[in-house]
Amino acid sequence: MSEWKMKRFWSEVTPKPVEAGFSIELDGRGVKTPAKTALIVPNAVLAERVAQEWRAVEAEIDPSKMPYTRSANAAIDKVAVQHSEVAGLIADYAGTDLRCYRAESPIELQERQAAAWDDALDWARERFGLELSIATGVMPVKQADESLARARELCEAMSAFSLTAFHDLVSMSGSFVLGLRAAEGCDTAENLWNTSRIDETWQEEQWGVDDEASEMAALKMTQFRHAYAFYHACVRP
Q1: For the residues of 36-67, what is the DSSP string, one character each?
Q2: How far from chain centre, in Å, is Cα 46?
Q3: Lesser CB count within 10 Å: N end or C end of the chain?
């Protein structure tokens, strides 16, 4: 939208109830997405978080400081118009879930992986009927067609807004199962992120911390935390 590259011109930011949810108005003018579609979010909680970002704009709009607005734009302009394709893309992670691939050695790393990941896989089987096989090493393991179909079904059932956040939860953690645990609120975003990085943490302990990799990991953790918060804002009544 044109406002996305403009300086601040508004005084008041107001979430407004509409038929499909809530719009965000700038001095009575509805915000639009980059594709010129009305920015309408599903509930008052999410609307207020988007509105807070627009209130916080000082002189010039900086999209990097408006994660809720960016995610809402993505949900409307990208995910909503190709929902089935995005659902399939995310469901594919169930076939390559990194939590299913275990180290061949050393035993200390194997034990750490099992302690962090086995309960999550058991939970996915019991909670969603999603049974995934474990492999050792890097050779691919073929997951059951029924499990892959179940993963697709779970993604298809999500709204465009939820699916937008779920995409980031899964892709950044490399795990469909951890994405589900984030969506279900089974643990904090920080703990789930740390659980996804067992291998990286092990490598750092053995060889030391790479500053560039550490900075990238910190950025991804921030993005993961936002995806977690955005997902749960989406599903609020």
Answers
A1: S-B-EESSHHHHHHHHHHHHT--SB--GGG-H
A2: 15
A3: C
**Which H/E stretch holds residue 24?**
strand 21-26
- 198 phi and psi, to 5 degrees? -55, -45
φ, ψ dihedrals at 41, nearest 5°:
-110, 160
Encode pLDDT of 33-49 as tens digits.
Answer: 999 999 999 999 999 99
CA–CA separation, 159 and 174 (whole Å):
21
Nearest alpha carbon to residue 41 among 62, 68, 11: 68
Token digits of residue 57: 């704009």
Tokens of 217: 């990991």
Burial 154-170 (b: 16+ CB within 10 A, else e): bbeebbbbbbbbbbbbb
**Identity of the amino acid at 106:** P
Residues 6+ positions from 171 with CB-CB distance below 8 Å: 90, 93
pTM of the model: 0.94
170-175: long-range contacts at Cβ-Cβ below 8 A with a sequence spacing of 24 or more? 170/90, 170/93, 171/90, 171/93, 172/196, 172/220, 172/223, 172/224, 172/227, 173/224, 174/93, 174/97, 174/98, 175/93, 175/97, 175/98, 175/99
Running DSSP on this structure, what letter comes out for residue 237? -
Q: How many helices (H) and strands (E) does the chain have?
A: 10, 6
Burial string for 57-79 (b: 16+ CB within 10 Å, else e) reads beeebeeeebbbbbbbbbbbbbb
pLDDT in tens, 58-106: 989 999 999 999 999 999 999 999 999 999 999 999 999 999 999 999 9
What pLDDT score does 140 carry? 87
